[in-house]
Specification:
The protein is an alpha+beta fold. The chain has 2 domains: 147 residues, 2-Layer Sandwich (Beta-Lactamase), CATH 3.30.450; 56 residues, no CATH class. Helices cover 36% and strands 18% of the residues. The strands form 2 sheets. A 6-stranded antiparallel sheet has the order 3-2-1-6-5-4, with helices on both faces. The chain is elongated. The termini are far apart.
């Protein structure tokens, strides 16, 4: 099974307050569902890792535990690849899942949903696992979907804040450039060189290139073309 090209590493930095909220989410899931493990998994490079793990009795998953994502046979690989819910009531009697790695941890039932980034790529999964057969109810499914939507909302807010921060930095850079260029520039009345704040005289092109994102490409205007190249038909009458 190949993981979808839409599965990608998150470039969003998850803040500590958000992680604490997610910890409450997985702890609440484990308590309400009466299961040993509630997890939020995250794609990291080529791996899928435990990002947040419930602090519940009998939970074998530790934060930072990871496995290769592609070809792992994990429940999460399927969820990320299909971008859809996976329900496995009892992996022991399911030919597709009876050899998956979580069986070795006695996790024989699974319910999970994909967590998507604002740009449509996969961040990871949110899931619960049980050491006994568990078909989970429709109510549980609806509840975990609400928790999933909450995590996606947090990711969207973080993405927006990050984007605004980058735009604000760009705006600050532009304002700085404008302040640099809008002052009174000491310019030679003859050769048109500009004196910088260190007292050195620079060609006007060099000064502007050094203080802005502007690059110059040299051409010749019709007036100068007529003056310097009177015998060449390279200017407008």
């Amino acid at each position: 099974m190949m993981v979808s090209e839409n599965a990608a590493n998150s470039t969003i930095e998850i803040s500590d307050p958000i992680i604490q909220k997610w910890q409450t989410v997985v702890d609440t899931m484990a308590e309400i569902f009466n299961v040993p493990a509630g997890l939020i998994m995250r794609i990291k490079k080529d791996d899928i890792e435990v990002f947040v793990s419930s602090q519940s009795e009998g939970n074998p998953y530790k934060v930072g535990d990871k496995e290769p994502l592609i070809g792992s046979g994990l429940y999460c690989e399927y969820v990320i690849n299909t971008k859809s819910k996976l329900l496995v009531p009892d992996a022991r009697v399911d030919d597709k899942w009876k050899n998956n790695p979580d069986i070795m941890l006695d996790m024989i039932s699974y319910l999970g949903f994909p967590i998507m980034l604002p740009d449509g790529r996969a961040f990871g999964t949110i899931c619960v696992l049980d050491k006994k057969a568990n078909a989970y109810s429709n109510t549980y499914e609806k509840l975990i979907m609400q928790f999933r939507d909450l995590t996606q909302w947090h990711l969207e807010l973080l993405h927006m804040n990050q984007s605004l921060g980058e735009k604000n930095k760009l705006l600050s850079d532009y304002i700085s450039e404008i302040k640099t260029l809008r002052g009174i520039l000491p310019i030679c009345s003859y050769c048109k060189q500009i004196r910088d704040d260190k007292g050195y005289w620079n060609q006007i092109e060099a000064y502007i290139e050094a203080h802005s994102d502007v690059d110059f490409s040299h051409s010749i205007c019709p007036k100068c073309a007529k003056k310097h190249y009177p015998d060449m038909d390279i200017y407008d009458d």
